[in-house]
């Protein structure tokens, strides 16, 4: 039986940190992108006997290969503690005890004890069943060293994200003057939506999610945009509605797919706006924060710096975004605040463009797309989730908002930085025909080969604190190599 322990000091009271871990979304927020994919959190959170379902990364694959891992929760041995035990996964056994204690070192003053805590993680595990251990001493030693290294990095990343979230959520509380909101979210099962819901829930806000089909949890609300079905009472419950839903655009732009992409966004956004209009003014939500994309600016704007005041462009995605934002803007006539989040390319090893490119880079065949001169306006997964939360809480944020990092790069620079992060060459250019095989010529031009130099002017003006303003920082956050 191997043992791993980590003890990290966090400058917040132990009771507050423990409560944070017991809220929906804590596991989603804590899981390093390169190490774990959260499929389903336990519900109610951490209740004894409930299970969390994940997929954990195979070492050396940069998250491109992930295997099932299911853990079951139990009460911990002391107050402010809990235990996770693996019931399905790649290891022989795994027992993780989490404890949140007042500090016993340092000055020992009452003020210190009340304002910080020690997050202690103790993991007892076996990589191989007992009958197979010792078959090769070299293999055993190598495995033990690899596991120790991976766990050390995993918990360093967990602690860094916990501290960053607590600090960010504290700043959000200041912006909103300490209000706790009721928030209704559409698209919460998606890559970005799951992080948005988790970030707001762990901050102490009451979050309900819109789901198609039958609800399975108390915090779920049924709806069906195709049949214009949404309970007005659920919308009236909300202080803010967030909507990130829509069919994936990572597909060939056939006539049928284009119709599905457009209608899935227009119909669902229209349903929310219509439902708000059906309510008495005093029952309407205060704000509607709706997704959009930098595709609004068109597929090729050259070197023009595109702030929110720039005109929209040409192409299918620009058409989709104009219709999408127009439907969302209808709530402004009802006296509601509206925000359309024009999202850039989200960089995460959990999905999207980066996940698709990683296999090529890992075998040394990565490189820039097209001629490499296109502007690449990106955003980290943590930042896009935080931008949505900021837009919810800061009443000064309204209208279109460019959700991109402040430093766009050209494709050549992106390829070079990604190769350096993975310690791989990045010199093999991908011709235009490559993306066209997957997306068709139109889809390739509007997605993989788009040229948009976008600036987050309104976020900067609002004082939004970027977590990952630089590309190398964002890649270091989502990839295992440091």
UniProtKB/TrEMBL annotation:
Species, as recorded: Kocuria coralli
Record-given protein name: TIGR01777 family protein
Domain DUF1731: 430-476
Gene3D superfamilies named in the record: 3.30.530.20, NAD(P)-binding Rossmann-like Domain
Every NAD-dependent epimerase/dehydratase domain range: 183-393
Family of this protein: Belongs to the NAD(P)-dependent epimerase/dehydratase family. SDR39U1 subfamily.
Protein origin, superkingdom: Bacteria
């Amino acid at each position: 039986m191997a043992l791993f322990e980590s003890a990290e000091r966090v400058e917040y009271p132990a009771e507050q940190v423990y409560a944070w871990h017991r809220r929906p979304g804590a596991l989603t927020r804590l899981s390093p992108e390169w190490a774990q994919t959260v499929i389903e959190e336990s519900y109610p959170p951490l209740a004894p006997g409930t299970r969390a379902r994940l997929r954990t990364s195979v070492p050396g694959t940069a998250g491109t290969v992930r295997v099932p891992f299911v853990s079951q929760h139990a009460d911990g041995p002391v107050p402010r503690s809990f235990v996770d035990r693996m019931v399905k996964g790649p290891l022989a056994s795994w027992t993780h005890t989490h404890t949140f204690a007042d500090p016993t070192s340092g000055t020992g003053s009452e003020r210190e004890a009340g304002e910080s805590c020690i997050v202690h993680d103790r993991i007892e595990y076996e990589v191989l069943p007992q009958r197979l251990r010792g078959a090769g001493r070299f293999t055993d030693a190598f495995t033990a060293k690899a596991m120790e290294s991976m766990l050390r990095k995993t918990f360093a990343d967990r602690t860094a994200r916990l501290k960053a979230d607590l600090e960010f959520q504290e700043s959000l509380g200041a912006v909103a003057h300490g209000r706790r909101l009721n928030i209704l979210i559409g698209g919460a099962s998606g890559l970005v939506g799951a992080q948005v819901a988790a970030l707001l829930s762990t901050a102490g806000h009451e979050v309900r999610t819109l789901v198609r089909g039958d609800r399975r949890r108390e915090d779920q609300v049924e709806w069906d945009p195709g049949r214009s079905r949404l309970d007005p009472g659920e919308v009236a419950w909300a202080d803010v509605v967030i909507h990130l839903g829509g069919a994936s655009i990572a597909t060939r732009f056939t006539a049928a797919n284009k119709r599905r992409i457009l209608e899935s966004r227009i119909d669902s956004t229209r349903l929310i706006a219509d439902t708000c209009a059906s309510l008495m003014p005093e029952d309407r939500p205060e704000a509607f924060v709706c997704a959009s994309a930098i595709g609004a600016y068109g597929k090729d704007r050259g070197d023009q710096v595109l702030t929110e005041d720039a005109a929209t462009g040409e192409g299918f995605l620009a058409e989709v975004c104009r219709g999408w934002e127009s439907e969302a803007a209808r709530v402004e006539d009802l006296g509601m605040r509206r925000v359309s989040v024009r999202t850039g390319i989200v960089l995460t090893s959990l999905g999207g463009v980066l996940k698709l490119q990683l296999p090529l880079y890992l075998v040394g065949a990565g490189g820039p797309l097209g001629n490499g001169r296109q502007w690449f306006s990106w955003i980290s997964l943590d930042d896009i989730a935080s931008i949505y939360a900021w837009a919810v809480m800061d009443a000064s944020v309204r209208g279109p908002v460019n959700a991109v990092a402040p430093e766009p790069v050209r494709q050549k620079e992106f390829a070079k930085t990604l190769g350096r992060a993975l310690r791989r060459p990045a010199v093999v250019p991908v011709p235009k025909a490559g993306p066209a095989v997957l997306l068709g010529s139109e889809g390739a031009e509007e997605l993989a080969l788009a040229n948009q130099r976008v600036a987050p002017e309104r976020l900067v003006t609002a004082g939004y604190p970027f977590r990952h303003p630089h590309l190398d920082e964002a890649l270091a956050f989502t990839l295992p190599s440091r």
